[in-house]
Design goal:
Layout (H helix, E strand, L loop, with lengths): L1 H25 L19 E12 L6 E17 L6 E16 L2 E3 L11 E3 L5 E21 L9 E23 L5 E10 L7 E11 L2 E8 L12 E12 L1
């Protein structure tokens, strides 16, 4: 009888402890993000992007080659939501450069011989061994951001959707080493031409970014055409590449 009493006492004690734990778990509150202070934490104030730059074009005869690339650098300001600082808006400014390489192609960027920008096939004529088009923009990106752990951004998953507005500052071409139609070298020199005549002075792009800590990947698609209406084929550049952000 004594043993039965002791067993009953143990069972009641265990049951009481389980009940208390269950009550405590039931009363556990979600984290109140509105009371979290992030005044001293960094959040992607500097952003560097290195990407592959390709064209979606209405002219399928344009012959690009090599590794067209982009390099972007931005200084960003971050404004967390007061009610939930996992969400924030990033606004910034910076510089974006694009380089596209061509095969057996000449681009009369100055428009001395025509009123439209033509991508001339010069494979059967004198041509440059290397030929590229370079553009430079001043850009203002805007992002809607989410961080899984804003208190520790270097150990957090981060997502961003947004867009960027660009102002064209420079457009130029560079040709190196003049070859004959048979491919033999005629002269080793560099020809540079610079003109914004055929290019849209502004551009608007949609952007997306995902990263963990300071490293991630990004994508961008230019919604406006590279060239002015009536100045050549419709060309919408797009990029995908590596993003480094922090501080």
């Amino acid at each position: 009888m004594k043993k039965l009493f002791l067993l009953s006492l143990v069972v009641c004690s265990v049951s009481s402890l389980i009940a208390q734990d269950s009550t405590a778990l039931g009363k556990k509150k979600k984290k109140d993000w509105s009371k979290v202070s992030l005044s001293n934490r960094p959040n992607d104030h500097f952003m560097i992007q290195i990407g592959y730059n390709a064209w979606a074009s209405s002219d399928n005869s344009i012959k690009t080659k090599g590794l067209p690339r982009s390099f972007n650098f931005y200084f960003m300001l971050d404004f967390p939501f007061k009610t939930d600082p996992r969400y924030s808006v990033g606004i910034g400014a910076g510089l974006a450069t694009d380089n596209v390489y061509f095969k057996d192609t000449y681009i009369d960027i100055a428009g001395l011989s025509n009123n439209t920008l033509k991508f001339q096939d010069v494979s059967n004529a004198e041509h440059f061994k290397k030929f590229k088009l370079m553009t430079t923009y001043l850009e203002a990106p805007v992002e809607l951001r989410f961080s899984s752990s804003p208190e520790t951004p270097n150990k957090s998953w981060k997502f961003a959707l947004g867009g960027k507005f660009g102002l064209l500052t420079s457009a130029s071409t560079k040709g190196k080493t003049l070859l004959s139609s048979s491919g033999s070298t005629i002269a080793s020199y560099t020809q540079k031409e610079k003109s914004k005549k055929f290019f849209n002075g502004t551009r608007l792009s949609a952007t997306a970014r995902i990263s963990y800590g300071v490293f991630g990947i990004y994508g961008a698609y230019q919604l406006t055409s590279l060239l002015k209406d009536g100045s050549g084929p419709t060309i919408n550049p797009f990029q995908i590449g590596i993003s480094i952000s922090g501080l």
